[in-house]
Amino acid sequence: MPNAVIVGTQWGDEGKAKVIDYLTDKSDVIIRFQGGSNAGHTVIVGERKYVFHLVPSGVISAGKVCVVGNGVVVDAEQFLAEIDELAAGGVSVDGRLFVSDLAHLALPYHKALDLASESGLGAGKIGTTGRGIGPAYADKVSRAGVRAGDLCDWDVFAAKFRAGFDAARRKTEALYGAKFDLDEGEIIEKYRMVRERMLPFIRDTAFYIFDAERAGKRLLFEGAQGTFLDIDHGTYPYVTSSNTVSGSACAGAGVGPRVIDHCIGIVKAYTTRVGNGPFPTELGNGDADGEELQRVGHEFGSTTGRPRRCGWFDSVMVRKAVQLNGITRLALTKLDVLNGFGEIKICTHYEIGGKRVEQWPSCLHDLEKVVPVYETLPGWKCDISACKKFADLPSNAVRYVERLRELCYGVSALIVSVGPERSQTIEVEPI
Ligand code: GDP
Ligand code: IMO
Ligand code: MG
Fold first, then answer.
1. What are the angstrom distances between the C-alpha of 234 and each of 218, 253, 259, 324?
2. Distance (Å, rounded) from C-alpha 106 to C-alpha 185?
3. How far is it, in rounded angstroms, from Cα 290 to Cα 284?
4. Does the beta carbon of 336 sit less than 6 angstroms from any atom of ligand 1?
5. Dist. CA 124–CA 63, nearest whole Å
6. Contact 164/138 with Cβ under 8 angstroms?
7. For the CA of 242, the nearest atom of ligand 2
8. What pTM, to 2 d.p., does this model score?
9. pLDDT digit string (tens) for 94-123?
């Protein structure tokens, strides 16, 4: 497969990890380029379920190299916990998992700041994952961050950690009026151990990727979150703190744009969102269809366990995602979740004050006023989870997929996923 970047086209949890795991077979190096342990990426192979927050989802395939790029904010404790879990399950990462020396660390005081900031916002809170993502990126941008490479010299690390810790304490107390009860000495001591274990993974990953690409290795860039959680293009301020769109892969991995041949947009067959912020097609509290989507789709966050808000497919959003990411192929996931519905709705466009709106309104103020307009398609009312070929799908399922494609600039489908397990994947049109 040519080099490709995978992005979520909605608000995250589209099933990116499932598709990445599947495509790992056709790739050599899998690279995370943004986000941090706010991501929850689920891969199911046979009876085994893996949930990754930092380690790339390709890691369970033997012999594949996985890279945590410079654009990621790394919670080193979480990273090591994932490696330990993998090792306990018989998966060794020795010599094939690397962390960029330029990646910033998400430290315990970033988590404390995240929580303090959220409680300071009260009812207006973002609904973050509490993993310290916003504060870690804020430190990076304000040039006060601590990078993985700083771990190479304990004194450098310890000095930067102490400065960051002190600033976080002052901010928590002065800005949010909250108690800051982290024990600096205890954390520093813990990080002596963390450092020892992290050192073998840390290297110049941009050079590694450059070299691998020149040697003909196939690269797969693993996006986290989704297009509408992007710090610029998403539903700001109800977003995460990184660029989640495909362009971010270049800066976040340290590659030029010509390295990436394809952008695969992962599209859930309906829409979900976890956390606060606008959601035009949301089927609110007590709606039977919304509850059915949540129940059948097991729509609970992989990182926080929070229930995901559910709604019908919104083509206005996904059209915008196609534009922003330069999507060349779609991978449609969770089609099987719609098995039981007699009728399925698709939002084709919006109206604001009775006027037709085809394009996603970039301003939250307008977005809050949109009224979604739906068309209704007949369901298929049968189990598609054992289908192996596109031609095996019932005609109403094919019709649904074709209509989604049509509404999304006719981009062709690479994959249709009909269940969480690796083998429940239909290849439609190879790249
Ligand atoms: P990600 O963050 O985009 O990787 O997605 P998550 O792992 O957070 O959430 C997707 C959930 O849907 C996981 O529990 C997957 O196991 C599951 N999943 C993925 N694809 C399918 C599918 O085609 N059908 C069903 N029923 N579940 C799926
Ligand atoms: P994956 O990679 C879904 C959401 C949070 C919150 C907002 C900001 O699994 O698709 P943050 O902790 O990043 O500051 O929270 O972003 N969010 C996600 N929602 N999937 C994710 O990742 C998410 N990562 C962050 O719920 O609304
Ligand atoms: Mg997820």
1. 30, 21, 26, 11
2. 18
3. 7
4. yes
5. 46
6. no
7. 13
8. 0.98
9. 999 999 999 999 999 999 999 999 999 999
